[in-house]
Give the backbone structure.
Amino acid sequence: MQRFTRFVQERYEPVARYKIGITEAGDAGLDLSWANKLDTVDGAIVITKCISPEFYDAVLSNKDRLIVHATFTGYGHSVLEPNVPPPYEEFDAIMALERAGFPKEKIVIRVDPIIPTPKGINTAKNVFKTFMDVGFSRFRVSIIDMYPHVRERFKEAGLPLPYGEHGFSPSTEQVRAVGEMLEDAERYWFNIGRQELFSDVLRIESCAEPGLKNACRCGCISGYDMDLLGLPEDEPDSFGYQRPNCLCYSGKTELLKHKERCPHGCLYCYWR
């Protein structure tokens, strides 16, 4: 039955009009090989925790073809993200990229992952406030997945397990707590008057988080992104394909190929 379903999908689903690159298999600020592949795609989403000088130059040289996801959890240079730059350094690097002419509307602050404990939720809330204060209006969130090898790393580091000894995903109550934090962040945006000042609509997005009701459900490559890249598409969000609940554009293609943990050494990394 699965083979038949796959045959029907391959036979009858429409082929994506565009090919959009993404850098989910590593950090685009450390592995610049994506820059040499831009001629093979119509546009790209580049994801990094580290806006290195080389990344800065490559992005500015290709700013019309790129959207930057700047991952900022608030844990940089901690036991959780030991080799990620400290938060103040990465904040300054994001601001420098925007001041140099990269469009702010094409910078997505990626609060990914959120640890749904009281401390973790408060850390994420502070990230939202920090970037809202300087006018960033687009965010993406996810809640941490605790793979068995991630649980072992947490235990070796002496960190508490957010879902207990065998838990992989958050409880209904933990998801609700994250949703309440997102509501608080939205109220903060309106209370400080950013909507009127910047005339930007606040977007807090999530993908593959079906229980999270307080975020816009869309893929890391969505119709909104296609418009930003100047690539009109009739039904860009119809055929997510990577994993259950994936909402990404079906023309998505990975630009990094190493398939191993990057030098950041984050404890929650899904690579073993």
The helical segments are 2-12, 53-61, 87-99, 118-132, 148-156, 172-191, 194-198, 223-228. The first helix runs from residue 2 to 12. The domain at 18-254 is CATH 3.80.30 (pyruvate-formate lyase- activating enzyme). The chain has a mean pLDDT of 91.
